[in-house]
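Input/output pair, single chain:
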Amino acid sequence: MATRSLTDRARNFLLNARWVLGETWENGPLLFVGIIVCKSLNSLFPAALAWIGRCLINAIIETVKNHRADFEPVMYWLWLSFGCVAAGALLDLINQLLQRRLTDRLTLQINLRQLAHSDALDLSWFEDPDFQDVLQRARQNTSDHVIAFQNKVLELFTNTLKILGLVAILFAIDPMVVWVIAPIFIPFIAFKWSQSKARYRKEYNRATKRRWTAYFVSMLTGLRAVPEVKLNRLGPLLIEKFRALTVEFQEEDKQLLTRNSVGNFIFAIILAVAFYLLFGRVAWRVLEGSLTVGDVAIFAGAVKTLKDLLTNLANQMSGAMEETLYINNLTDFLKVTPRILPGSRRTLARVDGRIEIQGLDFAYPGSKITVLKDLHLCVEPGEIVALVGKNGAGKTTLAKLIARLYDPVGGQILLDGVDLRELSPEFIHDQISFVFQEPNRYEATVADNIAYGHWQEMQDREKVIEVARLANLDRLVRSMPQGYDTMLGRRFGEYDLSGGQWQKIAIARGMARRNTAILILDEPTSNLDAQAEFELFSKIRQLAAGRTTIIISHRFSTVSLASRILVLDQGCIVESGTHQELLAARGQYAKLYDMHEIQMVRPSGEPDGLTER
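Output:
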């Protein structure tokens, strides 16, 4: 990361300060004003108390010297001092209440901004390892850094006012104090800033390793990963990898902590020596008669307070500048724009479902490997087309392009004659039911798992039950402990499903969208047994009726549903036809089918029962 000039650092600090304060103002203007008023008033009390203390001591000395019994001047300064302390305590309490309210609002807003921006980004970003580092940095307690920056800026403001007040009093006593403080304080600020940059660079460069540590934890604690990890006894290996990275972090942190502690110690010693020399000078002037005893008394207290304030100010300044670096992580994330543009936001009054692909080329962002090459295809409304091919042939990629989860690199995909890029992704997604090869296993009730397929329209429980019956799920669901209210998954519930049962839930979720023009089924029966697959066939035919349907499958029993079969190889369509036509052609499809038949026959030569029906 290139070293920035002092001007760039100042500009970056001001830009981030403006952004944070703008967010703060937007989420609680009255709270923010109240906090500033409380802190501003409170910042006047140290200097006021110092001056009152000077006057109190002089009043006591004057009363004793004149042998008077009139304590009214002394009581006046005592009551005034008490009033300042009480007012300061009240302002502190009010400030804490206002700050808590504002912090809660700002934290919620920052988190919502991050989540909303993540939701707006398209799929390709989340498959980009470089973006995963950006996301990792943005998720590292960014809202805490924003709050910390806001607090440090406010503390800088109030501490500066306190310091100016104390310096004014000390300057009135002995102007030499300014010429002693500046040469010590400015280098210390530069040192603290260099330490802040070093900590940030260290954490910035750890993003990938942080993701690795999170990955090792997920492998050791994630429900889906634990069985294989235990069976292969990978636990000690993964723990050692986690330990090695964590120890590396600790060693780096120890070096930085040591340098920071040494620097703080040196500054504290130099500042203490300087202030004691100044105190000796003031004491000498009292003996000479040019200053009063009250002056030397207040100088001692003010110097101690000023020393603490200067130390705090240095920490706050470097801390605020360090927080701006972490805020950059958030703003860098928020600057990432979707690769899929919304187009003209055009919609179609009616969607028939005709899909036409012309000269389609596609490569994943950042990859030089072309996944799909000069693809041409036309699927008529209501037609059922199956995509067949080896793993990596581009079948699922083509389906995701049709669903506009990606945009093509070259060529175009037309929906009823309109380029998908002219339509908004939201409109296209509303026209498609998609059952994924590896569907999500939502930690939610059965009813919610089904309703998530079309949650805007599935608020009514009867609609959920209707879809479950259509998917042959109702009997299974009613056998569960709480029926449709059974919480699925082991993170928050106590009931889990088999892979095939989760697949049925995913199919039901796809069935929840019954008014879409396009249906895409990616390996819909991969986890189903023979009986469940057979039962699903009629449902798929019913579900596909009148809709443009694309089926991706390695099971030839599923492929047989299609009116046309396309064979993909290395991103190209190499064969097209019906099941019988492709078998007769003795091409790649026939070879795949023959291998499938061999796999489905027992060693004794008897059919397995999963052979082609």
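Residues 443-504 form one domain. The chain is about 65% helix and 10% strand.
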